């Protein structure tokens, strides 16, 4: 087998065999194939695409490139959840304790990565003492006992993805459906769960701004998951405004706790419950959405979800009192600055990625891998799309420590939130379920 | 300027500016831009193509990447000629002395490279003593005095082409019109002549098998040449059978000498005179093809062309007696083996590349850069397309030293030459002149 033949085959519109895909992934990871040949192949893939079979084979070849997490010591069906990323998108902190409370098993490995706020790992680490570095043995033990655990990815999880992503990033080949789907799903498959629920975001704060692109990505990932023998479902959900109110690490923990206490209705809760419902269905713990929803509401009202959250925090070395007294335990910013509306009308649109960027500028996220996150800072949204506002009304609170970028953050935020005389059309919260 | 932006622009179908093209060529040659980014860009160029302006700018940027040959010390208009390569295609040895005899100035730099026989350099080196390594000063002096000289390319002529070609070769991006045209024309432009006549071959022995591809390449190269301020013309000529009779290095010198002596009519002479005519026209030494042809026939019949050939050989250290006694001076193979027809009918087609491959197997060419050419060996064709043959008629003579690959060479040759009951349609020798 020769790599040039494989490049030419794809370039000329051919379908690569599982063996050919395996050959180039193995060769690249082992260092036998140079990056310039893989770069040319990736560009050919960008132009020609990959069909469902090729995409699944690519994902499986990537999955096999490193360690496979063995969750067999955990009893029951293990269910994982993944979001393609959004603003104020802290669904995991809400749904994982609830799913655990209903008998589900959530053994979650997360990556860090760049973004307007940290990922689930960073959010949990804002709780004093909480550690995401747990040995595999202990991870499995926590899931068996508490029903959930969240740890960092092992170093050798899907090295092919790390290498391919770095190469795509510098060769203009990031935005290809098969490569994106393969990147996400290879990590999910390697992480060892039996079922996977995907939350594919679309809108002004999502990687896939267009709904049709998000749906295509959802379809591709569900096909890969099912093709690899995992029960997989994707929800395509709205990201045209921050999903919750909190954009920031400790702030998002606070909001998740409020929801788990039943004090905080809204879109974040709705999406979390929808995803959790499908996690229960795929785990065989509920027959349909109605039954799942009932069980989840029960876990909320009984306080069992909150109990699981506390158990998780304590199992991973954190201060469990955060559940009773989040304001006292979580880090707090020095100043809370209101950002006010200057016009009269309706909140008609939000350039959501810019709201995320404002939070990042306050210190809530990472622009480069070496950036250090400030867990205390961020934005607490006070208004949602369609809300009526008058000049002087508070649109959001900025939680600030370092004021270096405050002015730019404010300016980007106020430019991002459009106020017009007419009320906007309302987007559905959940566009579609892809099974 | 960022290389990823340039990759994305081309990938998305944009037109690269002269500055962007210059940036990536300079960056690649200097080592600032890594090969994987250039590989991705080349693949994007393969898919999107380059328009005439981009192709010319690419060629000019490549030309500037190394030394530019200064021919200003040579009096008169310097005219160069390039063939895209064919079998028994020794036009340079015929036309350069004739053009010189008519007052033209042919300062020719050639490369070596792979192929079924050597290039012009290798052919001339089959003459005992002939050296293609002449200092630039001496090169210009010979051209001024004799009217022609042929030397090897300086080491630093268009390094961008060497680098890009090596990369294209291993990334499936060889067969793109702009990249092929840029590769050829950058070397012609750097070589410093004022006018360029191109011989673009098409048919079973050519890189461009299809006439339309050859015509497109001719168009692209003429546009580049004219865009760069050089008078440029291309002839699209037939390569569906060996152009001359001789396929091999010393054998081709012999055939060229026979033509210069007026003893050897045929297609090689016709194509050489057609190319030479355009060289005279572009040099301002003839008003049109009729006038040019007349001057060239005069140079043939007067023996002035032959005299120039001898002067060239002697100026570059070779044995001038080769002109009077080629058989005695040139290296000869140990055995001459006739290859005979086994069927009755007409020579209806030749898989010409396979005839070249047969000569290569006898030792006349190079498959890898380190192969050593045997100047004596090769094939002397005895029949042409359309000839009537009977079983036992000699189709060709194999001039053989090392018999290691003889059987394979014979077999490939006899498979390549098809004999059928019907006489084939005759192809034109010159399909088109592209000005």
Helix content of chain A: 40-55%
Identify the CATH homologous superfamily of the largest domain in chain A. Nucleoside phosphorylase/phosphoribosyltransferase catalytic domain
Could you please say which CATH topology of the largest domain in chain A applies here? Answer: Pyrimidine Nucleoside Phosphorylase, Chain A, domain 2
Roughly what is the average pLDDT of chain A, rounded to an integer? 96
Largest interface: A-B, 22 and 21 residues
Taken as a percent bin, the fraction of beta residues of chain A is 15-25%
**Which CATH-level-2 architecture of the largest domain in chain A?**
3-Layer(aba) Sandwich
Distance between the termini of chain A: 37 Å
**How many H/I helices of chain A?**
17
What structural class should be given to the helix and strand makeup of chain A?
alpha/beta
- Tell how many strands the DSSP assignment of chain A holds: 13
As laid out across the biggest beta sheet of chain A, the strand order is 1-4-5-13
CATH C-level name of the largest domain in chain A: Alpha Beta
* H-E order of chain A: HHHHEHEHHEHHEHEEHHHHHEEHEEEHEE
| Shape annotation of chain A | globular
> How is the biggest beta sheet of chain A arranged?
4 strands, mixed
Low-confidence stretches of chain A: none
Would you give an account of this structure?
- Two copies of one chain form a homodimer.
- The first copy, chain A, has 435 residues and is of the alpha/beta class.
- Chain A has three domains: 47 residues, Transferase, Pyrimidine Nucleoside Phosphorylase, Chain C (Transferase, Pyrimidine Nucleoside Phosphorylase, Chain A, domain 3); 245 residues, Pyrimidine Nucleoside Phosphorylase, Chain A, domain 2, CATH 3.40.1030; 89 residues, Alpha-Beta Complex (Aldehyde Oxidoreductase, domain 3), CATH 3.90.1170.30.
- Helix content of chain A is 46%, strand content 16%.
- Chain A has 17 helices and 13 strands.
- A four-stranded mixed β-sheet of chain A has the order 1-4-5-13, with helices on both faces.
- In chain A, strand 4, helix 10 and strand 5 form a beta-alpha-beta unit.
- In chain A, helix 2 packs parallel to helix 4, helix 3 crosses helix 8 and helix 5 packs across helix 12.
- Chain A is globular, with a radius of gyration of 22 Å.
- The two termini of chain A are 37 Å apart.
- Chains A and B meet through helix 1, helix 3 and helix 8 of A and helix 1, helix 3 and helix 8 of B.
